[in-house]
Fold each of these.
Amino acid sequence: MGVLRWLAAAALCTAIRGQDYGLDRTFQDRTGLSRPPPHFGSIYHVRGVINLPYAEIEEPFEAWYNLTGNKSRIQYYGGQVITYQLAAVKPYGMQYKITPETTEKEVNTRKCFQLPGSKEDMVKAQSVFPSVDGFKFLREEYYRGRYCAVWQNVTRWAQKKNVYTLWVTNSSCGVAPVHYEMRGYNSLLGSHYDKYEISYTDFDNSFPPSIFDLPVNGEPGWAPPILPVGLGLMASPPCSPETKKCGFLPGSAAEHRVLVNPMEDLVGRHQPRAHEVFHHYRRRLGRRYGSAQELEHRQSVFVHNMRFVHSRNRAALSYTLALNHLADRTPQELAALRGRRRSGAPNNGQPFPTELYAGLILPESLDWRMYGAVTPVKDQAVCGSCWSFATTGAMEGALFLKTGVLTPLSQQVLIDCSWGFGNYACDGGEEWRAYEWIKKHGGIASTESYGTYLGQNGLCHYNQSEMLAKITGYVNVTSGNITAVKAAIYKHGPVAVSIDASHKTFSFYSNGIYYEPKCANKPGTLDHAVLAVGYGVLQGETYWLIKNSWSTYWGNDGYILMAMKDNNCGVATEATYPILA
């Protein structure tokens, strides 16, 4: 009886698949002379992992596909983000995206967004496999322990050559996908401009029709809590798309199509929609590049950064990322913005007077911006001068607390004049070395007296008679002591802090409480200097309010909330503040 059931299942597989794809047939088959291209059926379910090496991403997904009904569902990171492509919704189909959202009032509530199709761009069911049109049989080989047939397509346009390779093997239901990869070479750049891979597992041809029901109740303003995901099915009640009340996606129209169906760009062989997003980005920021070669290079960098941003946002983190003004920058260029030199040399700072604040009652939250102690966010430009911005920020706050007047102080004077104390201008420096210069030279120049910030090394030219804010020294806040740093901010104003900002998640931060498990927090591992202007609590999570110097285009108008948990990224490791005379 078991054999009969197996034969019936095999017959059903053959009927569904319409193909038998044995790898052990005749030599003629193995050379591909009579072998048909692989076909995965009109109905399937599969799991897999997307690997984007240039974006440093490995993203799990699960997909359900019904070509007959012209609908599909793809979910990412175990169902944290779910996308639907439903062609039957009139007039041109509809795409839905179910995603968690965290705001000031709610945490990880599911929200629905929709994107209707158009006459020019009708919604279709989205496969997670490439179309095999134009693929040619290449060879047979063992791949990751499985005997596979290898198919390949080579596509060329302009200076680009894309090689698409697909590995398939036998399963109980015929041919099954194993691995797919794309390698892109640009002769203009003389390098590989793109690379991504998709590995497939758990391929089968059956699932319940209810898998395409949206997991919502259809009420306006729907925002139920995230429910458990198990066996690929949502635990919440379904409803039909017709009764669903969904909002529209924020951002540019070009980016909408990528956000609601990211898989299309990975398995399609047409000019990716990501390039449309890049052109919109260029127009919005007024980007102009010096040559066709640089344009190609920047576009390639942007696409990798865009994939990273979108993928991390699908992971439902405690914060979100965005394609900011740094999205066309390479990792090397981003590193140049993190100009804190990690010398490890001891300084002459005073120890934090813990005993003076033993009985201090700290407020739950504090924001020195509300009291007028913080100057507007600036842009350090392509210059590793973050240390000078952190130093002047702490000096400005201390001077405000003493005089009641907020005076913008010059970063440029520190860049130009503090070489003798071990700073290297746009090639990096440390805050304590800047304090030492200020102490010796009787203060620091204001921005008004010294001149505007250049974003480049300049000639030292300060006027001694115009120096402000003499200091007697500076304090090293007890390393790793969260309470001490909070007390320092409360009693002395904004403090200069050093952090590990080497992760892409920091470069493209937009909002929410930033927590990066990969962050370092030890002395000698911190590569960026910023200003802690306050602290607070959001939905039970404590955070530092940090002012960066990468313009208001970065983060939340130039600011970031950084988690206090585990001294993440080292905010409390090397905090300092000046002592005014």
Amino acid sequence: MAERLALEEYRFDAQFASPLKRASEVAEIIAGKLGVEVILDPRLRELHTGKVAGLTPVEAARVQPEPPGGYRTYEPIPEGESTIDHYARSLSSYCELLDKHLADSVCVVAHGGTLGHLLRIIYGNPVNSPIVGRGYLCFMNGDTAR
């Protein structure tokens, strides 16, 4: 991705990233190619999945079976956070980004769940609306995407 951004001569005024390893490492690679500082924002972390963090879906089901009817967006995962909490963190980061960088070109490197929430916020979709696919490379120009 960093190669593509450099090849296509993208430039960013600011770059924000989750402090979690995978996202921060990708952000540093982009920073190295494009010469933009990485600002770590803990609000861009992935959903805190509590005691099932790092487990495979099969292992997680053994440790913490899903409740009948599934998780509700307002119910926290045991020892973790709710989807609403995660969404609120994402919204807080987005609002600050708009407040401080409205006229700037900004790069955000985060995780699938967080990026999904940011896209829901941008497009005005409900917190529980589905986002298809994994990984996002989305360029926003004003109110349009390409």
Amino acid sequence: MLNSFKTPQRIALIGGASEIGNAVLRSLPQDGIEEVIRFDRQTSGFDAAIENARREVVSSMFTKDLDVAIIAIGALGNQESTTEEANLLRVIEVNYLATAHLLYLIASKMVTQGHGKILVISSFAQERPRIDNFAYGSTKAAIDFYARGLSHKLKNSGVEIKILRPGFVLTRMTQGMKPAPFSISAEQAGKIGAKLLQGRSTIAYAPTILRYVAIIFRNLPEIIFRRLG
């Protein structure tokens, strides 16, 4: 349960090795936190691609009330290898199927307990398909769409779904890639994610200027957008 200061006491991070997810945790008020549960392949052996593993992890999270869940799993994939079926399926399986299933399972449990917040890490890449990341972007567009729809469905349930749309974040996942304009650190993205969890907004871009860049992206004529891409 939230304490008397309305700060979370129990938090789960799915994708415990995620630099953005951990940065969000560090940016939340620390005084009231009693327990943080992390799930990832390295420390707990959790494989998000396995359906039963997802069910077991969510069940273990709700032995007591859970205030906040951060879903920070993801696969960037190798865009140059999108013709390879295994690579493409992995990106779809982790970024959409596994994430949507986890979101559904966690939200259902939170509805039963009557409260809770879920942070889903989407991406600026979901705004419009680009030749260098369309496979990844398509999965982020799908989970973004699902999260928004579920958020509307759960209105007045006591459960809130928050969507963070980071741009290019300087992490291990993007190491070796050419940084895009408005690149930020995981710590900067984490601060925006924490503010989103504590505020009333449903969606936030990281950095916030991408909110306005997104409007331009969506409205550029296709012929101009392709030239830029």
